[in-house]
Target: tRNA (guanine-N(7)-)-methyltransferase
Amino acid sequence: MPHVVFDKSNRDLTTPSSCDGVDFNFIAKSYNFTQKKRKSEYKIAVKKDEKEFFLTLKPKDEKYLLKADKITRVTPVDIVKDAINSYAKHVEANIVFTNTQSFNQKIKPDQKYLKNIDFFVNDFKTDKEIQIEIGFGSGRHLLHQAKNNPNVQFIGLEIHTPSIEQLLKQVNIQNIENILVVNYDARLFMEFIQSNKVGKIFVHFPVPWDKKPHRRIYSNAFVNEALRVLKIGGTLELRTDSRKYFDFCTNLLTNLPKGKISIDINRDLAISSKYEDRWKKQGKAIYDVLLYAEQEDKDIDLNYDFTFNEKIEFDEIIKTISTKAVVDEDFFIHIEDIFTIEEMPNSGLIQVTFGSFDRPVNKYILVESRDAKYFQDSPLPTSANIKAHNKLKEMLTK
Model:
């Protein structure tokens, strides 16, 4: 992460002000509301190239550390480096360490076939059948399917960066044009796909999570979402070498109110991974469980409004809001910290984590003279985030 360390500055930062094309809009200081006292951490609101984000300033071993704020990251990282360098210049900081001259991104988000989740929320449209592979690993199976089914739109989900880089390299080398890749949790991704549009969902050799079963991809919620997006005759295909995972999924699927399953052992596929080849040579069993969709589902209707319509008494929130997490069946909310903007009455930042237990969202709510909004942009419109937002409104206005 780009940052600088300095031992003093000859000037205090005043806001609003500008330096080298970077706007410094306001400074917010942590209230540390869990102990009802101040701590010396600041969020500095900056704007560069029409992108708004925060820098974090905090004392460190009798020096000062200025770094990018993790929650409000922006790309390319050069924008953040420029903002940090501009701050140091603006306050005439005596820098003792910096890495803002050499910082590289591993994956460039503007690659043709690599999409962020916002693309699937706002822009993704296709008349083709969709097939999805969850956790594609080396990509051998996904590449094979895409080459042999050019009229199908494939979506590959993976959270392992080297696997994404490897697949994208092969997509370019082999000139494959019907794969889109997204780094996102598959348990939540399905909410952004229309009903009855998917022909197949492949889940090959997922991590079995025997000691942490709550982290497994298969659950009642995941399977129900899979059945919603699958068209009639579409399949959710599990392939695993874990007998425990096979038993768990079989028990889960046989107790569903809809859909039918088929089971196979040591089925040969046209393409297999190097690990599967090794396991077969060792005589290890490979289990297949296919779930077939047998009925159409209604389109999901996510009616949402992420605005805060009522005025928020920020100065009162500091005194009254609870530090205890709010936990519901489908979502949770935890207020992490509060930052005050001393130049503006009834104004500040609320740092909050909320939404799904599997994919929580970290956001700032910016309150300016009692008017509130999410800083940078609204949360993704998942059902958990929508429910959490509605509860947040109650908490902040009662």
